Amino acid sequence: MSIFTGVRLWKNAWVSVDPEFLVGHGPGGGTGMGAYVNGDSVHAGLLEQKPYLARAFLHQDIPIGHQEPVARPSGGEGDERDLDAFLTGTDSRFHPSERGVRLELTAGKVSLPDFMGGNDVAGDTHHRLINEALITDGSWDYAADARGYTWGVIAELYLPGPALVFRFGSFAVPLEANGLDLDHHYSDARGDNLEIEWDFDPDASGVAKVLAYENHAQMGSYAQAIDEAGSGIPDITATRERGRTKRGIGVNLQRTFAKEWGVFLRGGGNDGRNEIFCYTEIDRSFSTGFSHSGSFWKRPTDTLTVGVVGNGLSDSHRKYLSRGGIGFQLGDGRLAYGHEIVAEANYDASVGKATSIGLDVQRVWNPGFNSDRGPVMAYGLRVHVHRN
Predict the structure, then answer these.
(1) C-alpha dihedral sign at 317, 323, 368, 277
(2) Rounded distance, CA 219 to CA 272, Å?
(3) I want to staple 341 with a disulfide (CB 3.0 to 4.6 A). Which of 146, 232, 260, 365 is the partner?
(4) pTM for this one?
(5) Cβ-contact 127, 384 below 8 angstroms
(6) Is the pLDDT of residue 37 over 80?
(7) CA–CA separation, 241 vs 280, rounded Å?
(8) Backbone angles phi, psi at 292, to 5 degrees
(9) How far is residue 329 from each of residues 242, 334, 362, measured CA to CA in Å?
């Protein structure tokens, strides 16, 4: 359960403090797959007993030069619309072409995919797909603790002429892979992220994004772990050193057609030399899919979303697992390598103005990149209740 709060402070500024409560964990304690079937679950089988702070951040809009007035459905200023969009979880963000040049600053505790790597067609665990490799780029090892949150700062520059957005953010990484405690030695423990967005067709939600990142952390090396193990089982945790990095890049495309269809295409990869530290144990990922409203069957507020993703590992990561190595998410003692492939379909049905019920089905081939396992089926039922 999440409680989203927001308070307007002064012109173009607001603050949010969001407590969250989570009980239990997903099947297998969040392990056994690269593309884990529930992005809302927590890895390592954490069992929460009390509420915790999910988000706590300050957001400031800084207009630069002349600003064109933008109508809001209920009237009011643009920053109010941005705050309302965050609190309701609706996609009512402005495209760069709708307003003048502006700089947006956000500082505090956040979930990085709230700002980068998003995709309106697929990436919304409250109403659409929920697989970790479909809600964002599975190969993006974005800075976060085991719950998916971190402290940091992000700056966004909106340019209306070419309809471009430049985003840069730097965030804390965990002390150990997929840990709850964050490392506050920012000089050599942080995640730096740069995203460039081009809204090439705002009327059809046509967006192209390129995201590049570099993580600095006390990571282990797959190759070193293999070398030091000799004929034994490699242990990547024994090779951790400060100053190691992980670099990656991804491309993210989306567009709507005839106002009913939405399509997306996403691909990415990281260097795969050092251990996955934050998100999910995937080094290569390619996904595509579509969404459609229920207008064909007279349910225009319902949404059907379908996605397919194929994931892979780097050579050193693959060899480490085949030798019996264990990661925070993967490790079978041996590995008959195969690309992990997931197909997911989700139907989200509106029940009144504030409630929706989602039915989800997934099929996973070669779970954990092991062709000796699977395929497996996963089924989900989601009830989402929103109250203002």
Answers:
(1) negative
(2) 12
(3) 365
(4) 0.88
(5) yes
(6) yes
(7) 20
(8) -150, 140
(9) 22, 14, 19
Q: What is the pLDDT of residues 318-360, one digit of tens each?
A: 999 999 999 999 998 888 999 999 999 999 998 877 888 999 9
Residue with the two structure tokens 């399509």 = 263
* DSSP SS3 for 132: helix
Nearest by Cα to 151 from 42, 40, 54, 21: 54
| Closest listed residue to residue 224, CA positions, set 335, 324, 313, 317 | 317
The owner of tokens 């697929």 is 122
Q: Please, what's the b/e burial string for 48-59 (b: 16 or more CB within 10 A of its CB; e: otherwise)?
A: eeeeeebbbbeb
Q: What is the pLDDT of residues 49-93, one digit of tens each?
A: 678 888 999 999 999 876 665 544 443 444 444 665 665 554 444
Compute the C-alpha angle 1/78/293, nearest 5°.
Answer: 55
User: In the prediction, which pLDDT does 95 show?
Assistant: 52
Residue 359 or 40, more confident: 359
Side chain identity at 333, as an amino acid letter? G
CB-based contact 183:189 (threshold 8 Å): yes
